[in-house]
Write a structure and sequence with these properties.
Blueprint (H helix, E strand, L loop, with lengths): L2 H18 L3 E4 L1 E3 L10 E3 H14 L1 E2 L2 H6 L6 E7 L3 H14 L3 E5 L10 H10 L3 H7 L11 H4 L7 H14 L24 E5 L12 H16 L2
Parallel strand pairs: 1-5, 2-3, 4-5, 5-6, 6-7
Bound molecules: zinc ion (ZN).
């Protein structure tokens, strides 16, 4: 490839994005290398800082409220983080502080009662090669669902609440001890920090795949998290 072509390919997409879009960036787990490291939802701190510094060259990070309230969003962006992984506060927050980037963390209130996020239960079964056995046990899934189970398990076809009931039954039956080290999300109100760079938002109580639930179940799950915030 000649050098001119290379330069054009590099600059045109950035210019295109800059002119047309003001993206909102979304992260999940952020932290040091861990056994969660190979997961698509995890970004290590070094990569995070590199990405943020790059983004800051083109956009200014503002809070999600300021972003929504500003009519002309040119040059603005916002950063949100889903699910409330502990490592966001324990490991990654110092990066946001250093770069002075406001963040909004969308939490699932059920994890504060010590409940393990149901997607992490699935990740556990995948990492431990137990999906085949689980599917055999399940009344919801069939054998052909094994291969792409991570994504299939969050399909609209399967009511997440029912999926979690089956997961819990299976975990109990197999005597699997999902203890503190599997509680990766906020399980203590000490993670709700009063800091000018941090805002918190409602990500529902249990993080079920909402379109897989009935309207009533959806309402209940969102309201439960809203009521949790009401306590503070
Ligand atoms: Zn989420």
């Amino acid at each position: 490839m000649n050098i001119l072509k290379k330069i054009l390919l590099f600059f045109i997409p950035i210019k295109f994005v800059l002119d047309k879009y003001n993206p909102i960036f979304l992260y999940h787990s952020l932290g040091r290398a861990s056994n969660f490291n190979s997961n698509i939802d995890h970004v290590d701190l070094e990569t995070l800082e590199k990405q943020l510094r790059y983004i800051q060259k083109y956009w200014k990070f503002v809070t999600i409220d300021e972003y929504i309230d500003t009519k002309d969003k040119k040059g603005l962006t916002s950063l949100t983080i889903d699910d409330g992984y502990k490592n966001v506060i324990d490991d990654a927050f110092k990066v946001f502080e250093k770069l002075e980037i406001p963040i909004t963390i969308f939490i699932n209130s059920s994890t504060f009662n010590g409940k393990i996020f149901w997607r992490d239960k699935i990740r556990y079964l995948i990492q431990n090669n137990m999906i085949k056995e689980f599917v055999k046990y399940s009344k919801l899934f069939k054998e052909s669902d094994v291969n792409n189970f991570y994504f299939i398990s969050k399909s609209t076809k399967f009511n997440s609440k029912q999926v979690e009931i089956e997961l819990d039954e299976f975990i109990l039956r197999k005597n699997i001890d999902l203890n503190t080290e599997h509680k990766l999300c906020f399980d203590n109100t000490k993670y709700l920090i009063n800091h000018p760079l941090i805002n918190y938002g409602n990500h529902s109580a249990n993080h079920y795949f909402l379109s897989s639930l009935s309207k009533e179940e959806q309402y209940k799950d969102i309201l439960e998290c809203k009521n949790f915030f009401g306590k503070f």
